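Dear colleagues,

I hope this message finds you well. In preparation for our joint manuscript, I am sending the Serine/threonine-protein kinase PknB (Maioricimonas rarisocia) sequence together with its predicted structure, so that both groups work from identical material. I would be grateful if you could confirm receipt.
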Amino acid sequence: MNFFKQLFRRKPRIEKIEIRRRFDLIGRVGQGSMSKVWRATDTLGGRMVALKVLDKAKTLRLEQRFVGLERPTEGEIAINLHHPNIVRTLEHGITSEDEQFLVMEFVEGVGLSYLVDLQNERMQKNRLWYIIQIGEALEYLHQQNWIHRDLCPRNIIVSNEDRIKLIDFGLVVPNTPPFRAPGNRTGTANYMAPELIKRLKTDQRIDIFSYAVTCFEMYTRELPWPAADSFESVLQHINQPPKDIRKLVEGIDEQVAAAIMKGLALHPDDRWPTTRRMVNDFREAAERLGQLPRTQETA
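The corresponding structure tokens are as follows:
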């Protein structure tokens, strides 16, 4: 908790950066609902980086949802995350246009959403290993006392070396009572837990639900419920049980299927209590099935 106190109190004066003077923008590599990302060269050291610039108006609207709670910025959160399955943030600050920006390591790879849709040999061979890595990143985030609130394939990159990288922390909040209180509903509708959609009290188990939806999609190329484009349409089916993954994926390992379905439980008390326990089941299955990289077999 001392870290959070220091984080909330520390408001250093940040020198504003003129993006186009500091960085050589090579090309756009991504655009989220609240930001744009460029592949860029940092002129200070010649390093290739991913430069993320947040939309000023949309960021302000998000911050207004947490008035009085002193929610840290995405940059303040990301700069303190150090895990092999989380993209490394090198710097953050404010542009001359008063936009927040983050400088991150550039990861050569593809989005997980692309592999989910493609379902090629690479995906089928490595998906359980990908699932384990996603879980390890989420477990680390939870151990650091955060709630992600927007875990989904869109926010995950798979490197050319099959290393998972969680890349977006725009909706992350501290795992503290004020941020777990009922009312605030942010995230991607199709991956949101029922209690979040219904504006009930939340905790880290909303991330476990999103993780399970992601795992389900990685195996089936579809969502556990009919896809929805609004919170209202999600509410229409969220009280119904999810599709059974066993009926959609012939021959799926029972331990893997059971782990995913438990994570999809509508009531948080029926889900896995922690990400660690869910990941342990995936890892145990992967070891039994011989689907772990050799360097991980005795990890």
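For the figure legend, we might mention the following. The mean pLDDT is 91. The chain has two domains: 8-105, 109-296.

With kind regards,
E.M.
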